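Entry 12.
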Amino acid sequence: MKATKFILLMLIAVVSFSACKKKSDGPIVIEPGILQGNISSNMTLTNDRVWILNGYVYVTAGATLTIEPGTIIRSDIANKGALIIERNAKIMANGTATQPIVLTSGKAPGERTPGDWGGVIILGNATTNRGTNPLPTIEGGVGRTYGGTNDADNSGVFRYVRIEWAGIAAQPGSEINGLTTGGVGTGTVIEYVQTTFANDDAFEFFGGTHNARFLVAHATADDDYDFDFGFRGNIQFAVAQRDPAFVDPGDAGNGIEADNDGAGSNATPNTRPVLSNFTFIGPGNAAGTLTNHNHGNRLRRAVQFVIRNSIIAGWRVNGLNLESDATINAYLSNTSEYRNNILHAHGLVLNSGNQTLLTNDNFRTKVEAEGTSIVASVAAVGLTSPTNLSNPNFIPQPGSIALSGANFTGLPGFFQTTSYRGAFGTTNWMAGWTNFTPQTTVY
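Predicted 3D structure (C-alpha cells):
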C-alpha cells in the first residue's frame, strides 16, 4: 500500500511539473499554451495561462472550443495567428464584464501595430446570396467555405470579448477583419464585443441571419461595420469611433459600408441589415485628419437597409450616401428605412448618387419628414465626451436631443424599446470590459 501511494505521488508530481516551471527567483508559473493547426475535438482554453496562436488555427466540424472568462490569447509574432471556427463547429467564448476574453498582439506594450495578427472568423450554415453549389469561400485566404440552408444554425456564444490589433490581408480585397462572420445563423449569440485598431474592417458579416448587441469599433482602418452577400440580421446598441490619425491609405474608411454583392446584382436574399441605437462618431475635419475617412453610412450596390434611432456625426465627407439606383429605389419605395436618427457631417450631410432619381433637396425633405434631426455639429448632439479617444463617454448630457425621439414601430421583437437615440441612455454598458488604450496594457 505504501509503495502504491508513493508511485501515485510521483506521477502527480511529474504531471504538475510538465505544466509548470519554477523560476529560479520566484514562484511556480504556468507555461504558455501553444495553439496551432486543427482543433478537431472538444478543447477548453483555461484562464490560468496565456495562450499563443501559432499561425491559422481551425476549429473543425464537430468540435467545440470553450474559452474561460478572463482568458488571454496572443498571436505568435513571426507566424501571425488567426482563429477560424468552421461550419458545424462551435465556439463558447463566454466572458463577463469583469473577466472579458482578450485576443491580442503578441508584441510588447509600445510595439504593437494594427495587423499584428489575423482576427476571428466564425462560419455557419445559414443562407447567403452566393448559393450552395458550390458553397462560397470566406475571404482572408483561410480556404474555408460558409453558408447553407439553416438560418437557425448555432455557432456558439461570443460574449464579452476584445479583439485588438487584428487584420491582415491575404491579397488585395481579401482580408481578415477583427471579427468576420460568414453564413452564421440566429442560434448564435454575439454580444459585448470590442475591436480596437483593426487593420481592415472591425466587423464584417457575409450573409447569414445572426443578431448582435453591444458592439464597439474603435480606431478602425477601413469600415467599422460591413455587410455583404445577403446579411439580414438585427443589431442594436453599437458604437463606431474613428481615430483622425489612422485610416487605410488604400481604401475609404466608413462607419457602415454595405452591398448586396460586389456586382450590385439583385441576388437573393438581399443584404438588409436592420440596425437601431448605433452611435457613429467620425474623425472630424481638423487639420491633420487623414483624407481617406469618408462616410458615416455608405450604402451602395443594390443594398437594402433599416437604420433607426441612431447618431451619425463628425464624418468628413457625407453623413448618409446612397450610391446605386437600386439602393435609392429601395429607399424611395420604403423597402429600406432611415428614420428617427440624428445626422451631421462636415461635408454633405446627405448625398444621392443619382440626382434624377433623388435630388439632395428631396432627400433631405424625406429624411426629416421621417423623424431624423439634422444638426450643425457634433457638439449639437449633446454627448458627454464622444471624441475622447482614450476615455470616451457617449452618454447624452442633460437636455441632449439624443435623450428622446426614438421610434420602434414596425421593428422586429428582437429590439429593446428605448426613448433615447444612439447607443446609450444613462447607463454605460461599456464599463469594465472595454479598453481604449491597448498599446500600454500589459498581458
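Annotation: Helices lie at 2-19, 325-332, 360-369. The first strand starts at residue 20 and ends at 22.
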